[in-house]
What we know:
- By secondary structure, the chain is an alpha/beta fold.
- Helices cover about 40% and strands about 10% of the residues.
- The protein contains 11 helices and 9 strands.
- The strands form 2 sheets. A 6-stranded parallel beta sheet has the order 4-5-6-7-8-9, sandwiched between helices.
- Helix 5 links the parallel strand 4 and strand 5.
- Helix 5 packs parallel to helix 6 and helix 7 packs parallel to helix 8.
- The longest helix is centred in the C-terminal third of the chain and has 22 residues.
Amino acid sequence: MPTFRPELAGLTPRKVLENYRIWDSYFTPSHSSPGPNGDRLIADIERSLPIVEQSRMERLCLFPHVGPGTTDQRTGEWLAKNPKAVQRAFDRWPKLLLGMIQLNAADVRGSLEALDRWLRDGPMLGVYFPSGMKIEQVCSHRNFDRLVERIAELKGVIMQHTWFTTGGKSRPGQSTPSELAELAGRHPSIQFICAHAGGEWEKGIRAVRPHRNILVETSGFDATAGFVDMAVRELGAERVVFGSHLPSRSLGTELGKVIAAGISESDKKLILGTNYRALLRPVMEAKGME
């Protein structure tokens, strides 16, 4: 059987993808719950592996629910008693998976305890602050200050889910890039990743532009021409980080935002991997990770 050549189907050649050294900052298998004994999480990752291999991605970062108040009460209590369900995936794919815990700033004490357990003493490399149905406070709330300071002390990476909704917020705890800019302004020495660039990316890019400690992440909204081009023009390529949103989004769509952008190959390499590795380097070195 002849060898499949991606370029003949209009796809990016594998060698080019390998040279990009892609690190995915936004991998969401079983995002709401890992399932009994972590089985659902394992199955979701397994289903993603063929496309991960085809795209030549080196590392993927997922966001386990190990902080209080980030999932339903029953699942949260079960995970607190069964941390091995979270650890299973990292033990199985230690050279592929990276982890950042989810936290809910409404419970500062519980979140600080989770940071000690999972970031200081455990395998996690940072924190993802979601904006789900369980979240009541936006990221400009003062509860976030103590948490981001502690994460920075532990050299962890911080990502905040952001979204601009036409007509107003769909829920009280939905953070926007404008609110992340307010938080980042209070902590200029701490770096933040603005997940999804707010969805309405033109507005999101403008909101974070003055704050050089904010990087925008590329996933989560339909591909539209000009997004990455504008981000590079307004922020600089060093302030853009790639995310796939696999398995709930098309990897072709998400990669296409970067690979098809009218930017230099060196800028594409920054976005697809170099920038994220730079953010992770301090915490990975502290943990003796490669």
